[in-house]
Amino acid sequence: MDNVLEVRELSRSFPGFQLKDICFTLPKGYIMGLIGPNGSGKTTTIKLILNMLKRDGGEVKILGLDNIAEEKAAKAELAVVFDSNYFCEAWTAAQTETAVSAFYENWDTDRFHRLLERFHIDPAKKVKDLSRGMQMKLMLACAFSYGAKLLILDEPTSGLDPVSRDELLTILSGYIEDGEHSVLFSTHITGDLERAADYITYINRGSLFFTGGKDEFVDSFRIVKGGPEDLTEEIKERLIGLRMHPTGFEALVRTEELKKLKHMANQGCVKGSREAGDYGAWGSRTVENSDVSGGRAAENRIALGRETSETVRFPAHVSALGKPSALKKPSPVDSWTVEPATIDEIVVFTSKVSDDNGE
Question: What is the C-alpha separation between 68 and 75, in angstroms, rounded?
């Protein structure tokens, strides 16, 4: 069995919300980040995997076992850590083991106590006296003590300080090292995923937006920025989560769309070509002094080709010396700043589309 977890066409309806046809697979030896805005359906998906909610349709298999028809055997292969402590706060760490181990035939007491020692947890200390991070480690110690092949975490780093978050990610990386264990990791702290995740499943408003490799997800999008005169209605329709501000715009665009947008804008340049005296026709910014050699220091640096943090372009028909040029007007897309998109930016811009559509 190459896949630890298989989810097919998973659905569940609530008043005012519907989780629709969620599909993804998690192979052995990898970490998958389950992401999406608050209320997108991440926790609902996890509860359906755990059979804590009755599904309307679909199928879930854990190491090839049906999560309903073979629930007991399936749950023996997985461990779950939620975003808050679920142990009795009056228990000590040792009493917690006594209560939890009764449910698992293959519980390893020696391993549990080695983990307590590794995590610096005093067996005699009560759960209520442990910090948030230490409570998380106690839950992980239990999760790792009966040979579970799949670890499911629902917002585990929420409320943790940066040091505790970093330690948790290190623990998860060690858990999958042997290639036999996997992690499904729900979070809205996407910086954790940048470091730890191999795969991404992105759910937005109950629908599957993407599932696949993390690098593929990030490489599929770019952030573009430009001047307000660079936009046409046709170009606007292809931008995702467009944000306008007084000096220009920024938006998300699919990487594959960049060439199409350039072609569309080139056609617009030919149709909308202006006379040479129209100096600002296609420039996001222009040199304000006609004599560049006596212009501002910043403009001089740009004119001399030195590095600058801004994308500044002369009008196509004006040379660096302020003289008319016979060069063809470039596409507005040529003046855009194009940057790689982070996971967080992709989620923010694509969520804005749903908000703008009133969904």
Answer: 10
Q: Is 159 left (phi over 0), alpha (psi -120 to 50) or beta?
A: left
Q: By the 8 A CB rule, do 230 and 330 touch?
A: no
- Rounded to 5 degrees, what are φ and ψ at 194? -55, -35
User: Is the alpha carbon torsion for 300, 301, 303, 308 positive or negative?
Assistant: negative
pTM: 0.76
User: Structure tokens of 84?
Assistant: 């808050």
Chain centroid offset of residue 88 CA: 34
Q: 149 phi and psi, to 5 degrees?
A: -90, -20
pLDDT in tens, 171-219: 889 999 999 999 999 987 878 888 889 999 999 999 999 999 999 999 9
> Cβ contacts of residue 348 below 8 Å, gap of 6+?
241
Question: What pLDDT was estimated at residue 227?
Answer: 85
Torsion of CA 330, 335, 339, 344, to 10 degrees: -110
